[in-house]
């Protein structure tokens, strides 16, 4: 055996035992006649001790070991005189009697420590070294535990895990597909799945009434902290259910994961907030409810009093920041610059502060009486010491900007505590959304989402009015997953396709396999898909999913470790009958 124990398990109770350990040299310290080596493996760190007086040859051998050498050490467990209670093995050390070098190592390009000196790109290039760091490794172990608990819960609820194809048909809706050329069928292409949506619906037609899969998905879209070109979903579908059945089942999954992974128990059901309410109160369909600071509409209260910005605006709204009345002009100017950023899109900020005596002072005092300002404070629920921040403009755009301002204020006030979890459901989404550029409606979720039965009558006359049987699980302002009750009858599905601008021929060409299946007794069904990477990152208290993926891509969708994407040989291109055309360089 290379080892009798790991580097993370020995304690005072093992004192006097002869043991063999194996691992990497984390660091070495020479102190006079003594040499100390921290030996590391996946499980932890154990201190090795060498004494120049008792065994000078062994001590000299130890002093020649470099960082990340792979070694095997045999010795006796002893109590440490200088204990390190920050680690589980910090009360013991190994008095080494023999050490063998199993492999040498070049000097690593960065320190293999929790607080490393390596930048992101360097660590991604040497990701196999980065994964040796305890904090990175713990993220991957968390992901493993999450996956096991997902399977345990769903298996206990009667779900069957079924794998679905990776080479599928390209569809025009949604994000861009990654496509794969076919050598056998020249000029034809597979696509990598953005989700197994149609397959899980076919499994319902096939009679597998509870399906799940922890599945790899692919989308060719612009990246950010919580996006990767390849990502993992917990994909689920059920038959013979209503919306409440889905929400109750997967709220149960969330509760199971919080309990087993974080030891947290939630009292009462998760809040359920309609989409329209989420947008009006929080400016987003994924509200962070760890703190209050809701948006209040002031449009009617501030119009017609001579202040042109408010008089001409379709919408005026505000948030009230508790305890911020004493903020300086510089701090408020910083907030104004924040909302003016292109990605936020605000024109500026009007402020009002509630003084200690209850009076209200604002940046637009000359347009509003004391009673007008007091009414604004009353409407926003502001108390003495609060700062009211007001924005005006087009409704949807202004609400979105206020939502971003709300999050920024919470960040500055320390209200977004990553150790606190606030899950909720957002329900009753619009079925469709209008695109000005193409002058047509698109599915808010996907073309198989069922409309609310009471809204079907508006599908052809007023499509924007139709709500969907759709729902999202949101945790701490992040959409963890979403789904819907599906259309299961051909008549409603055809109506949906017509509303989206598909001809009968186009619908048959793209989705004929599913439409044909619906002719053979499709049961009522619905499902949900969770972003497994995002959910794991939330559980790990992080904003980025990259740290929870063993081998992620960078923000240019490149794997710098294996240097891909890359060119392929001309022979391969010839086999596929492909010619490469360089994109014209933009001026």
Structure description:
- This protein is α+β, with helices and mostly antiparallel strands.
- It folds into 3 domains: 12-103, OB fold (Dihydrolipoamide Acetyltransferase, E2P); 137-272 and 423-549, Bira Bifunctional Protein, Domain 2 (BirA Bifunctional Protein, domain 2, 2-Layer Sandwich), CATH 3.30.930.10; 291-412, Gyrase A, domain 2.
- The chain contains 16 helices and 22 strands.
- The protein has helices at residues 56-63, 120-125, 127-130, 134-156, 197-205, 243-262, 275-282, 299-302, 308-311, 329-339, 370-379, 395-412, 490-499, 504-518, 532-539, 570-575; strands at residues 18-31, 34-41, 44-51, 70-79, 92-103, 160-161, 179-181, 189-191, 210-218, 230-239, 272-274, 296-297, 315-321, 350-354, 360-362, 387-393, 423-427, 432-435, 440-443, 470-475, 478-485, 525-531.
- It has an 8-stranded mixed beta sheet, with helices on both faces. A 5-stranded mixed β-barrel has the order 1-2-3-5-4. Strands 12-13-16-14-15 form a 5-stranded antiparallel beta sheet.
- A hairpin with a 2-residue loop joins β2 (34-41) and β3.
- α4 crosses α6, α4 (134-156) crosses α15 and α7 packs across α12 (395-412).
- The model has no long low-confidence stretch (mean pLDDT 94).
